[in-house]
Amino acid sequence: MHAEPTTWYGRLRQRWVDRAVQRMYERLRGDPGSFRTSPSTRAAVALAVVVIAVALGFVGFLVWATLHAHTSVEWGLVALGWAVVVLARPRVVRLPDDATVLGREEYPALHRVVEEMSEAVGAKAPAVLAVDLDFNAYVTSVGRPLRRRSAMVLGLPMMSLPSWSVRLGVIGHEAGHLRGRDTVRNRLFGTADSVLGTARQLLTPGDDLDAEESWYGDSDAAAARAAAPMVRVILGVLAAPFHAVALLLDRLTVNEGQHREYLADRRSAQVVGSAASVGFLLEADEGLATVVGAAARRGEDPFGVLLDRPPMTAEQRSRRLGALAAERIRADSSHPPTHLRVRLVDEARLVPGSGMPDGATLAAAEAELVRLRGERRRELADLFRTGLA
Fold it and tell me: What is the Cα–Cα distance from 20 to 27, expressed in whole angstroms?
């Protein structure tokens, strides 16, 4: 459950999220076969492209200014401009330290499972496959700015659920994000947000703007303190356009984030069927961390308690769905409430499609997972015993 926001912007943003959740749900419920791009997505992409184009134009201007600078003042301004560019530049993106990259030669079956599920969903398989100890899964982009590669990270606890159909639902959902080119849009939005964030940070005065005598001396400090309010006003005026554009981009991407989650659910369900997708959504929301944590503190195998857990019955699923709908859970900016996601998938009544991995491939993948669980079992247990999870 997400805590209630405390700032005015947090409350405003939560209202955006709540409206976007219901709006996207009703739109997709009324058009079950639609994968159309939402208007908010098109607007967000256009705005991000404009921001990046302006930033590139600024770099081009700096190149010209560097070639034509002569005076010390001009060189100082050019140096300041290049310092801003260095601060706003895209960084190399790496996976977190706790993610273990799975080489194709060592884990061929797991790669084959992900490749076949990606192909069934209609996506290109991720270039990098990894596992971690999170109760989640995600796709992202890693590498240098101009040579980014897609990566899928699967939480070992999710890959230890007893039903392979539910596990395939997890993989299919992440492949659905790749099919929707969500990682590409994330890079675009992230770059634009970085540009705007750097400008806002540079134009937002810190607490040390009010001078202290130890720095300026007695006489100059009084003048500096008197000028501080005027400086704040000037910087605020200069920063206002960047704040406004960042606010608009955030508003548009809130809608876009809700839409992409619903569509990833739908793409996965078209392959694994509605039942498996519902199972994935409910199992992931059923407090797996609590179950594993209790087992770890009792000295039991944290993965074993998941593998031995019986699948939810139809009655348990119905009860859980009712409980989720009754709870006052605030959606976050990217994931709609679970009960709405379940309803959309369940009402579609989709049956498993073709292209899923066969039994032999899944058996080989399970053998590789057994090895991975053995390597990281103690690490997962220690996270709960030390209170870090």
Answer: 10
Q: Confirm if 117 and 168 have CB atoms less than 8 A apart.
A: yes
Give me the DSSP letters along 243-311.
Answer: HHHHHHHHHHHHHHHHHHHHHHHHHHHHHH-HHHHHHHHHHHTS-HHHHHHHHHHTT--HHHHHHTSPP
Distances (CA, A) of 335 to 24, 30, 329, 338: 12, 20, 12, 8
State whether the Cα torsion 184-185-186-189 is positive or negative: positive
Q: Could you give the CA distance from residue 202 to residue 112 in angstroms, rounded to a whole number?
A: 47
CA 350 to chain centre: 27
Three-state secondary-structure class, residue 150: strand
Backbone angles phi, psi at 237, to 5 degrees: -65, -40
In the chain, which ranges are continuous DSSP H helix?
8-30, 39-68, 72-88, 108-121, 164-179, 182-202, 213-216, 218-272, 274-284, 288-297, 302-307, 314-326, 338-348, 359-385
Single out the residue of 353, 357, 345 nearest to residue 280, CA to CA. 345
In sequence order, what are the residues at sequence separation of 6 or more whose Cβ sits closer than 8 angstroms to the Cβ of residue 317? Answer: 278, 279, 282
Alpha carbons 383 and 389: distance in angstroms, whole number? 5
Mean pLDDT, each 10-residue run in order, the chain (389 residues):
66 79 80 73 92 96 94 94 90 92 97 97 96 94 90 96 92 94 90 90 66 47 62 80 89 82 91 89 78 88 90 78 67 73 87 90 97 94 78
CB 91 within 8 Å of CB 194: no
